[in-house]
Structure formats: C-alpha cells, structure tokens
Design goal:
By secondary structure, this protein is an alpha+beta fold. The chain folds into two domains: 183 residues, Ribosomal Protein S5, domain 2; 137 residues, 2-Layer Sandwich (Alpha-Beta Plaits), CATH 3.30.70. It contains eleven helices and 13 strands. The strands form two sheets. Strands 1, 2, 3, 4, 5, 6, 7, 12 and 13 form a nine-stranded mixed beta sheet that branches. It has a four-stranded antiparallel beta sheet with strand order 9-10-8-11. Helix 3 crosses helix 4 and helix 8 runs antiparallel to helix 9.
Amino acid sequence: MIISRTPFRISFFGGGTDFPEWYNFHSGKTISTTINKYSYISARKLPPFFKYKFRFRYFKKEEVKKISEIKHPSIRETLKYLKFNEQLELVHHADLPAQSGLGASSSFTVGLLNSIYALQGKRISKKNLALSSIEIEQNKIKEHVGSQDQIAASFGGFNVINYKKNSFEVNPVTAYKNIKVLEDSIFLVFTGHPREASLIEKNKIKRISYNESFYKEILKITSQAEERLYSSNNILNDFSELMNRYWWNKKKLSRNVTNNKIDFLIRKGLKSGAQTGKILGAGGGGFLMFLIDPKEKKKLQKSFENYITVPIKFEKNGTQIVYYQDLS
C-alpha cells in the first residue's frame, strides 16, 4: 500500500502567463508557494476476489471492470497514460475543498502519478512528474488549465517559475526573511462558493490576443515582485502595492474573475486593515487572500467571524510518499 501527500498552493503573481497559449509565443513567469494543506491518496493493488477490477473513492464511489468505464477524468487518463492495467484501489482525502483556487485538481493528478509510480516500485524526478501531469491535464483530459499548479505541487516550496516554449525553469526563492514576513501576513477567507475553474480559464484563453496588453503588464508586475523579494526592506508594503496592480489587471482578463460578492468581501477586508486582497486561482469563488500586518489580524478575523478562515504555513517538500508497505 502507498499513501502520497501532495500540497496545495498559493499563487501571488503571474497567473495567466503560465498558459501554453501564452508562453509558447511569449515568456511567462509566476510566483507561488506550496502550503501545509494537502491532498492524500492511498493506493493498493486490489486482491482478485471482486467482480470489478478498479475501485475508487473520492467524493464519489466507482467500481468498474475497464479503464474506459472510469468516470473520474484524471484517474482514467493517468492510468491510460501509464499503461497501468493491474487491479487497483484508490482512496482520496483532502484538507480543503476542490474548486477553491488552491490548485486542488493538479495536486490530485500529481499525487496520483506519484502513487502509481511508487506502487510499481518506480521513481520519477520532480520535473518529469510535473511534465507528465501537465501532459495529462492539458492534452489528455483537455482541461483549460495553466502549468504552474502541476509544477508547484511537484517541486514544493516558494518559487519563481519561468516559462518558455515547451520548457520551464524553477527558481527557489532564498530571501528567507521576506518569505517569513509574507507567511505571517497571509489571511485566507473561504467565500463559500466553489467554481468551475476550467470554464473561466477557457474564456480567458479565447481572449488572450485581445488582452495582450494586460498579460504583458502582469508579466511586468511579476518581474518587479521577484526583484522586490530580494531587495525590499518592507516586503509587506511592496507586495501589497504590486498585488493591487496585479488584481486590477487580472480582473480585465475575464468578467467572470470577480463578482459582487467577491468585490464586497475584498472591500470588507480592506476596511478592516488588510493592505491588499485578491481571489486565488481562476476567480469566481473559492479562497480570498489578504495581506495584512500580523498585529492587525485579530481585527480582520473579527470582521470575517461568520466565514471560514484558514491559517496556513508554507511548505517546501512538494509531493511525497509518506507511507509504503509491500503487501505482496
């Protein structure tokens, strides 16, 4: 039996420039970190005593005889991609809900790949794990998703990721003092409204050429944020100023990025002491992220006492096999 643990992520800057529809023709850059909230997958080879060959439990239950009968797209396409046709049982648990803007779907795919490789006694590099996950989600499932989530979940840590045509480069950020300030300054609020990210991203992709000026500005802001990580003497103020600019440009990519409720909650947070706020992920719902002086967090917490707030810490390991037992 195998148990994998794969982190969710927070994206600060650059979302949208990690789409191949953009970076295959322009450069791309994102700044993100993985956090101590995880997707867990347990996997084992199923004994040959059942009418079915595959059994899966996530928010649904599946018991099927053929890979083609599997309804979960990531499981089906991953098993086809790996040419894995042995009897299999998978169980999925997660610390946070899906469709919440924290890269949950990609964390699932990365953790699934890692688990199946481990179940076969194989090892795969973090880079190849990310590339395989991108291939499955973008080309096999044909999801309208970028590339940063798969890379973040595979590598872990606080990274600047650069994208060029058919390639990427992960640069771990070593400005540890400023990273710690950011970690202490983050405040996450769940809007209570999950959303279908792929539909929002599909709309953005259709409008890439029309929104080229906004993507170029996002790229410029992300490069400035990278520089500030190493040079700033007040990273909270500097990141907040840049994030306000980034949020303005992100909202221009699609009218579905924000809505009246999101705008209301961000105004509420700013009035309660936050220096900046934005939706995480594609937009439309999920988690809001605020940056605030840690001394002012109690005031912000009181303002959102009727909402679910989630304290987090950064993590640096990426996907891991946390349990292995040979049951053969």
